[in-house]
Design goal:
The protein is an all-alpha fold. The chain folds into 5 domains: 64 residues, no CATH class; 48 residues, no CATH class; 47 residues, no CATH class; 48 residues, no CATH class; 68 residues, no CATH class. The protein has 18 helices and no strands. Helix 12 crosses helix 13. The two termini are 25 Å apart.
Protein backbone atom coordinates (compact mmCIF):
# COMPACT_ATOMS: atom_id res chain seq x y z
CA UNK A 1 0.00 0.00 0.00
CA UNK A 2 1.27 3.43 -0.91
CA UNK A 3 2.13 5.53 2.11
CA UNK A 4 0.33 8.81 2.49
CA UNK A 5 2.69 11.68 3.03
CA UNK A 6 2.01 14.50 5.47
CA UNK A 7 2.05 17.96 3.97
CA UNK A 8 5.12 19.98 4.94
CA UNK A 9 4.58 21.86 8.17
CA UNK A 10 5.61 25.49 8.22
CA UNK A 11 8.00 26.26 11.00
CA UNK A 12 6.66 28.86 13.36
CA UNK A 13 9.22 31.00 15.05
CA UNK A 14 8.49 31.32 18.73
CA UNK A 15 10.16 33.70 21.08
CA UNK A 16 11.84 32.17 24.06
CA UNK A 17 9.75 32.78 27.15
CA UNK A 18 11.38 33.62 30.43
CA UNK A 19 10.10 31.84 33.57
CA UNK A 20 8.12 33.77 36.12
CA UNK A 21 10.32 32.86 39.04
CA UNK A 22 12.05 36.25 39.06
CA UNK A 23 8.87 38.21 39.78
CA UNK A 24 5.66 39.57 38.33
CA UNK A 25 7.27 41.77 35.67
CA UNK A 26 8.03 38.79 33.38
CA UNK A 27 4.41 37.93 32.62
CA UNK A 28 3.70 37.98 28.85
CA UNK A 29 1.75 41.05 27.77
CA UNK A 30 0.50 42.33 24.42
CA UNK A 31 1.05 45.75 22.84
CA UNK A 32 -1.88 47.17 24.81
CA UNK A 33 -0.43 46.02 28.13
CA UNK A 34 -2.90 43.14 28.59
CA UNK A 35 -1.77 39.84 30.07
CA UNK A 36 -1.63 36.91 27.62
CA UNK A 37 -2.65 33.88 29.65
CA UNK A 38 -2.49 31.42 26.76
CA UNK A 39 1.29 31.84 26.57
CA UNK A 40 1.64 30.73 30.18
CA UNK A 41 1.68 27.12 31.38
CA UNK A 42 -0.46 25.99 34.30
CA UNK A 43 2.59 26.01 36.58
CA UNK A 44 3.43 29.57 35.58
CA UNK A 45 -0.14 30.78 36.19
CA UNK A 46 -0.14 29.14 39.63
CA UNK A 47 3.27 30.64 40.43
CA UNK A 48 2.10 34.07 39.33
CA UNK A 49 -1.08 33.78 41.42
CA UNK A 50 0.80 32.76 44.56
CA UNK A 51 3.31 35.57 44.11
CA UNK A 52 0.48 38.08 43.54
CA UNK A 53 -1.37 36.88 46.66
CA UNK A 54 1.80 37.06 48.77
CA UNK A 55 2.61 40.62 47.68
CA UNK A 56 -0.97 41.83 48.23
CA UNK A 57 -1.65 39.96 51.47
CA UNK A 58 -4.44 37.85 49.94
CA UNK A 59 -5.41 34.61 51.68
CA UNK A 60 -8.92 33.70 50.48
CA UNK A 61 -10.68 33.01 47.17
CA UNK A 62 -13.09 35.92 47.57
CA UNK A 63 -10.22 38.31 48.27
CA UNK A 64 -8.41 37.14 45.12
CA UNK A 65 -11.56 37.52 43.01
CA UNK A 66 -12.06 41.08 44.24
CA UNK A 67 -8.40 42.01 43.75
CA UNK A 68 -8.01 40.49 40.26
CA UNK A 69 -11.10 38.89 38.71
CA UNK A 70 -9.19 38.09 35.51
CA UNK A 71 -6.57 36.02 37.35
CA UNK A 72 -9.26 34.30 39.41
CA UNK A 73 -11.21 33.52 36.22
CA UNK A 74 -8.17 31.94 34.50
CA UNK A 75 -7.48 29.78 37.56
CA UNK A 76 -11.12 28.69 37.62
CA UNK A 77 -11.32 27.91 33.88
CA UNK A 78 -8.14 25.86 33.98
CA UNK A 79 -9.19 24.04 37.16
CA UNK A 80 -6.18 25.38 39.08
CA UNK A 81 -7.90 26.87 42.15
CA UNK A 82 -7.23 23.64 44.04
CA UNK A 83 -3.48 24.13 43.57
CA UNK A 84 -3.49 27.53 45.29
CA UNK A 85 -2.87 27.57 49.03
CA UNK A 86 -5.92 29.45 50.27
CA UNK A 87 -6.36 29.97 53.99
CA UNK A 88 -10.13 29.65 54.02
CA UNK A 89 -11.33 29.70 57.61
CA UNK A 90 -14.66 27.97 58.19
CA UNK A 91 -16.14 27.09 61.54
CA UNK A 92 -16.80 23.35 61.93
CA UNK A 93 -19.17 23.25 64.86
CA UNK A 94 -19.12 19.43 65.04
CA UNK A 95 -15.45 19.54 66.03
CA UNK A 96 -15.97 22.19 68.74
CA UNK A 97 -16.98 21.19 72.28
CA UNK A 98 -19.81 22.86 74.18
CA UNK A 99 -17.31 24.70 76.36
CA UNK A 100 -15.50 26.13 73.32
CA UNK A 101 -18.79 27.20 71.72
CA UNK A 102 -19.84 29.03 74.90
CA UNK A 103 -16.39 30.63 75.16
CA UNK A 104 -16.54 31.79 71.53
CA UNK A 105 -20.04 33.18 72.00
CA UNK A 106 -19.02 35.17 75.09
CA UNK A 107 -16.00 36.55 73.25
CA UNK A 108 -18.12 37.72 70.30
CA UNK A 109 -20.75 39.20 72.62
CA UNK A 110 -18.08 41.12 74.52
CA UNK A 111 -16.47 42.49 71.37
CA UNK A 112 -19.78 43.58 69.79
CA UNK A 113 -21.64 44.66 72.93
CA UNK A 114 -24.35 41.98 72.56
CA UNK A 115 -26.58 41.39 75.53
CA UNK A 116 -29.76 39.73 74.19
CA UNK A 117 -30.70 36.68 72.14
CA UNK A 118 -32.15 38.83 69.38
CA UNK A 119 -28.92 40.81 69.02
CA UNK A 120 -26.83 37.64 68.87
CA UNK A 121 -29.16 36.11 66.29
CA UNK A 122 -28.81 39.20 64.07
CA UNK A 123 -25.03 39.35 64.52
CA UNK A 124 -24.29 35.64 63.95
CA UNK A 125 -27.28 33.45 63.13
CA UNK A 126 -25.04 30.38 62.72
CA UNK A 127 -23.58 30.67 66.22
CA UNK A 128 -27.04 31.38 67.65
CA UNK A 129 -28.45 28.23 65.99
CA UNK A 130 -25.65 26.09 67.43
CA UNK A 131 -26.27 27.46 70.93
CA UNK A 132 -30.00 26.84 70.55
CA UNK A 133 -29.59 23.26 69.24
CA UNK A 134 -27.20 22.38 72.05
CA UNK A 135 -29.40 24.16 74.63
CA UNK A 136 -26.53 26.45 75.63
CA UNK A 137 -28.27 29.83 75.37
CA UNK A 138 -28.69 30.05 79.15
CA UNK A 139 -24.99 29.20 79.65
CA UNK A 140 -23.89 32.25 77.66
CA UNK A 141 -25.58 34.73 80.01
CA UNK A 142 -27.95 36.43 77.60
CA UNK A 143 -30.83 38.63 78.65
CA UNK A 144 -33.02 36.00 77.17
CA UNK A 145 -36.65 36.70 77.85
CA UNK A 146 -38.58 38.30 75.03
CA UNK A 147 -39.98 41.72 75.82
CA UNK A 148 -43.74 41.71 76.32
CA UNK A 149 -44.88 45.23 75.42
CA UNK A 150 -48.52 44.40 76.23
CA UNK A 151 -47.63 43.92 79.88
CA UNK A 152 -45.84 47.28 80.11
CA UNK A 153 -47.46 50.65 80.62
CA UNK A 154 -46.60 53.74 78.55
CA UNK A 155 -44.30 55.18 81.22
CA UNK A 156 -42.41 51.88 81.57
CA UNK A 157 -41.87 51.68 77.82
CA UNK A 158 -40.64 55.28 77.60
CA UNK A 159 -38.17 54.70 80.46
CA UNK A 160 -37.00 51.46 78.84
CA UNK A 161 -36.47 53.22 75.49
CA UNK A 162 -34.46 56.01 77.08
CA UNK A 163 -32.24 53.43 78.80
CA UNK A 164 -31.65 51.57 75.53
CA UNK A 165 -30.84 54.84 73.75
CA UNK A 166 -28.30 55.82 76.43
CA UNK A 167 -26.58 52.41 76.35
CA UNK A 168 -26.41 52.21 72.56
CA UNK A 169 -25.86 55.94 72.01
CA UNK A 170 -28.99 56.35 69.90
CA UNK A 171 -30.13 59.91 69.32
CA UNK A 172 -32.40 59.82 66.25
CA UNK A 173 -35.58 58.07 65.19
CA UNK A 174 -33.83 56.42 62.28
CA UNK A 175 -31.16 54.88 64.52
CA UNK A 176 -33.75 53.60 66.98
CA UNK A 177 -35.82 52.02 64.19
CA UNK A 178 -32.69 50.35 62.79
CA UNK A 179 -31.57 49.10 66.22
CA UNK A 180 -34.97 47.74 67.31
CA UNK A 181 -37.79 47.84 64.78
CA UNK A 182 -40.27 46.17 67.15
CA UNK A 183 -39.70 48.72 69.90
CA UNK A 184 -39.96 51.62 67.45
CA UNK A 185 -43.24 50.25 66.07
CA UNK A 186 -44.64 49.94 69.61
CA UNK A 187 -43.78 53.57 70.30
CA UNK A 188 -45.42 54.68 67.06
CA UNK A 189 -48.61 52.67 67.64
CA UNK A 190 -48.98 54.02 71.16
CA UNK A 191 -48.13 57.55 69.91
CA UNK A 192 -45.20 57.82 72.34
CA UNK A 193 -42.51 58.99 69.90
CA UNK A 194 -43.01 62.63 70.89
CA UNK A 195 -42.21 61.74 74.52
CA UNK A 196 -38.74 60.54 73.54
CA UNK A 197 -36.06 63.21 73.32
CA UNK A 198 -34.69 62.74 69.85
CA UNK A 199 -31.94 65.08 68.72
CA UNK A 200 -33.52 65.73 65.36
CA UNK A 201 -36.13 67.99 63.90
CA UNK A 202 -38.51 66.59 61.35
CA UNK A 203 -38.03 68.33 58.03
CA UNK A 204 -41.15 69.93 56.62
CA UNK A 205 -40.42 70.08 52.89
CA UNK A 206 -43.66 71.95 52.19
CA UNK A 207 -42.38 74.96 54.16
CA UNK A 208 -39.04 75.04 52.32
CA UNK A 209 -38.27 76.76 49.04
CA UNK A 210 -36.46 75.00 46.18
CA UNK A 211 -33.23 76.83 47.06
CA UNK A 212 -33.45 75.68 50.70
CA UNK A 213 -34.08 72.08 49.65
CA UNK A 214 -31.06 72.15 47.33
CA UNK A 215 -28.93 73.60 50.12
CA UNK A 216 -30.00 70.81 52.49
CA UNK A 217 -29.25 68.20 49.81
CA UNK A 218 -25.77 69.56 49.12
CA UNK A 219 -25.00 69.59 52.84
CA UNK A 220 -26.10 65.95 53.18
CA UNK A 221 -24.04 65.02 50.12
CA UNK A 222 -20.94 66.70 51.55
CA UNK A 223 -21.31 65.04 54.94
CA UNK A 224 -21.97 61.56 53.52
CA UNK A 225 -19.69 61.97 50.48
CA UNK A 226 -22.51 61.31 48.04
CA UNK A 227 -21.80 61.93 44.36
CA UNK A 228 -24.55 60.13 42.44
CA UNK A 229 -28.33 59.89 42.34
CA UNK A 230 -28.20 56.21 43.31
CA UNK A 231 -26.12 56.94 46.43
CA UNK A 232 -28.51 59.71 47.50
CA UNK A 233 -31.52 57.47 46.96
CA UNK A 234 -29.98 54.75 49.14
CA UNK A 235 -28.91 57.24 51.85
CA UNK A 236 -32.14 59.28 52.06
CA UNK A 237 -35.09 58.07 49.99
CA UNK A 238 -37.37 60.81 51.31
CA UNK A 239 -35.01 63.59 50.29
CA UNK A 240 -34.50 61.98 46.88
CA UNK A 241 -38.28 61.83 46.35
CA UNK A 242 -38.65 65.53 47.16
CA UNK A 243 -36.00 66.41 44.58
CA UNK A 244 -37.63 64.21 41.96
CA UNK A 245 -41.15 65.56 42.56
CA UNK A 246 -39.92 69.16 42.34
CA UNK A 247 -37.77 68.45 39.28
CA UNK A 248 -34.58 69.50 41.10
CA UNK A 249 -32.41 66.43 40.54
CA UNK A 250 -30.41 68.12 37.79
CA UNK A 251 -29.92 71.28 39.89
CA UNK A 252 -27.92 69.50 42.59
CA UNK A 253 -24.89 68.63 40.46
CA UNK A 254 -24.40 64.88 40.57
CA UNK A 255 -21.28 63.29 39.17
CA UNK A 256 -23.07 60.59 37.20
CA UNK A 257 -20.75 58.04 35.67
CA UNK A 258 -22.05 56.35 32.58
CA UNK A 259 -20.63 53.08 31.41
CA UNK A 260 -18.67 53.38 28.22
CA UNK A 261 -20.49 51.34 25.59
CA UNK A 262 -18.57 49.96 22.67
CA UNK A 263 -19.67 51.76 19.51
CA UNK A 264 -19.61 49.06 16.83
CA UNK A 265 -20.99 51.49 14.25
CA UNK A 266 -17.79 53.53 14.34
CA UNK A 267 -15.61 50.43 13.82
CA UNK A 268 -14.77 48.93 10.42
CA UNK A 269 -15.03 45.20 9.75
CA UNK A 270 -11.26 44.80 10.02
CA UNK A 271 -11.17 46.64 13.35
CA UNK A 272 -13.94 44.45 14.78
CA UNK A 273 -12.22 41.26 13.58
CA UNK A 274 -8.93 42.40 15.15
CA UNK A 275 -10.72 43.36 18.38
CA UNK A 276 -12.44 39.95 18.50
CA UNK A 277 -9.18 38.07 17.95
CA UNK A 278 -7.47 39.98 20.77
CA UNK A 279 -10.39 39.35 23.12
CA UNK A 280 -10.46 35.64 22.27
CA UNK A 281 -6.70 35.34 22.73
CA UNK A 282 -6.82 37.05 26.12
CA UNK A 283 -9.77 34.96 27.36
CA UNK A 284 -8.58 31.73 25.73
CA UNK A 285 -11.75 31.37 23.64
CA UNK A 286 -11.46 28.67 21.02
CA UNK A 287 -14.97 28.16 19.65
CA UNK A 288 -18.01 30.11 18.48
CA UNK A 289 -20.09 28.78 21.36
CA UNK A 290 -17.54 29.96 23.92
CA UNK A 291 -17.49 33.43 22.36
CA UNK A 292 -21.29 33.61 22.39
CA UNK A 293 -21.41 32.63 26.07
CA UNK A 294 -18.56 34.97 27.06
CA UNK A 295 -19.46 38.08 25.04
CA UNK A 296 -22.89 37.87 23.40
CA UNK A 297 -22.73 41.46 22.15
CA UNK A 298 -19.49 40.93 20.23
CA UNK A 299 -20.74 37.60 18.86
CA UNK A 300 -23.96 39.20 17.57
CA UNK A 301 -22.04 41.99 15.81
CA UNK A 302 -19.78 39.46 14.10
CA UNK A 303 -22.79 37.37 13.09
CA UNK A 304 -24.74 40.34 11.72
CA UNK A 305 -21.77 41.55 9.67
CA UNK A 306 -20.90 38.04 8.47
CA UNK A 307 -17.46 38.13 10.10
CA UNK A 308 -17.55 34.93 12.14
CA UNK A 309 -15.72 32.96 9.43
CA UNK A 310 -12.98 35.59 9.29
CA UNK A 311 -12.45 35.37 13.04
CA UNK A 312 -12.52 31.58 13.34
CA UNK A 313 -10.98 30.67 9.95
CA UNK A 314 -7.46 30.02 11.28
CA UNK A 315 -8.70 28.23 14.40
CA UNK A 316 -11.04 25.92 12.47
CA UNK A 317 -8.41 25.27 9.74
CA UNK A 318 -5.93 24.35 12.43
CA UNK A 319 -8.42 21.89 13.92
CA UNK A 320 -9.12 20.40 10.45
CA UNK A 321 -5.39 19.99 9.83
CA UNK A 322 -4.96 18.30 13.17
CA UNK A 323 -7.84 15.94 12.46
CA UNK A 324 -6.41 15.15 9.00
CA UNK A 325 -2.97 14.48 10.44
CA UNK A 326 -4.52 12.15 13.02
CA UNK A 327 -6.30 10.20 10.24
CA UNK A 328 -3.07 10.00 8.20
CA UNK A 329 -1.17 8.72 11.22
CA UNK A 330 -3.83 6.10 11.90
CA UNK A 331 -3.85 4.91 8.25
CA UNK A 332 -0.05 4.78 8.17
CA UNK A 333 0.09 2.66 11.29
CA UNK A 334 -2.60 0.39 9.88
CA UNK A 335 -0.72 -0.01 6.58
CA UNK A 336 2.48 -0.86 8.42
CA UNK A 337 0.71 -3.49 10.48
CA UNK A 338 -0.67 -5.17 7.30
CA UNK A 339 2.76 -5.70 5.69
CA UNK A 340 3.76 -9.40 5.53
CA UNK A 341 6.58 -10.30 7.85
CA UNK A 342 9.75 -11.57 6.11
CA UNK A 343 10.90 -14.74 7.79
CA UNK A 344 14.24 -16.50 7.69
CA UNK A 345 14.19 -19.79 5.73
Amino acid sequence: MRKLQKPPVKEVKTSKKEPLAEGLQTIPIDSAGRRIWRKMSDEEVVGFAQKFMEENGITGKNELQKADSGLHGILKRRGLLGKIKFEEKQKSWKEISDEKVVELAKKIMGERGISSKMELKKADSGLYSVLKRRELLDEVGLEGKQKSWKEMGDTEIVEFVRKVMREKKIDTRGKLQKADGGLYTTLRRRELLDRIRFEEKQRSWEDMSDEEVIEVVRKVMREKKITSKRELKEADRGLYSVLRKRGLLEEVGFEERRRKQRSWKKMSDDEIVEFAKRAMEEKEIGSRKELENTDGGLYNVLWRRGLLDSVFANIEKQRTDQARDAVIDALTKFADSEKPEVGVA
